[in-house]
Amino acid sequence: MPFTEVGGLSIYHEIHGTGPRVLLLSGSGADLRQNPRRDRQPLTRDHQVLMFDQRGLGRTGKPPGPYSMADYADDAVALMDRLGWEHAHVIGISFGGMVAQHLALRAPERIDKLVLACTSSGGAGGASYDLLAHHGQPPAERFAATASIMDSRNDLTTDPPTYAPWFDLLSERAAQPALNHDDPAAADGARRQLEARAEHDVYGRLGEVTAPTLVLGGRFDLQAPPDNVRRLAEAIPGARLEMVDGGHFFLLQVPETWQTVLDFLH
Q1: How far apart are CA 104 and CA 59, in angstroms?
Q2: What are the Cα distances from residue 213, in Å, to 95, 113, 243?
Q3: pTM value?
Q4: C-alpha span between 224 and 235 (Å, rounded)
Q5: In the Cβ-directed half-sphere of 208, how many Cα atoms lie within 13 Å?
Q6: pLDDT tens sequence across 46-61
Q7: Which residues contact 36 (CB under 8 A, 6 or more apart)?
Q8: CA distance 29 to 31
Q9: pLDDT tens digit string along 77-100?
């Protein structure tokens, strides 16, 4: 299996597709096994895409904490080094967008173009919704508590519940046991990620970002609210802003958004 040792951390990673290189950074609690079609997503049609489980998550190692946002950015750079990737486009989704912001500040020479989706800068630019408040809840309970945050069109008080596109499927998944649910280290790793996320604040340094940047936000997203996304784009020199008619998962709800990303990367 594709494990790489990086500074004592065993990182599970996969590379799919051929073409220009793309580093894809995923969101809070993400595990590659959650997406069985990851080798067939739009990016992989004409790009070589590196994706990995971040520290504390999935099949990657779960070292003792605390973790910092710098740790996550440095893990990404170290993995690129071990794989011989001198530079790549970087796409960060949600928490991955926060990691990508730190990466753009710590190693700007490694990024060709930068895509930040459904994410926030922290600080005066606004923080994303505090998911740490729901850590440890059963998946179905957590889904019920955050559904209207993920997409303001969701209303679980109606009978039957009112779901924005794709959220009916997510509600079914929430009733299933979480991956690694029987591994105490996995719960600790997920909590440490959320603790690092709570400290994310690069707003005052976004003017230092040099990579051409596309910022994407969902109009119905209350986890990374539209105002946060707009402030993020305004603070990055020359950044392009695109708002999408979706919630926090607009890349799934409005899949044609991927074409906007592909056009930007070309």
Answers
A1: 26
A2: 17, 6, 14
A3: 0.97
A4: 16
A5: 13
A6: 999 999 999 999 999 9
A7: none
A8: 7
A9: 999 999 999 999 999 999 999 999
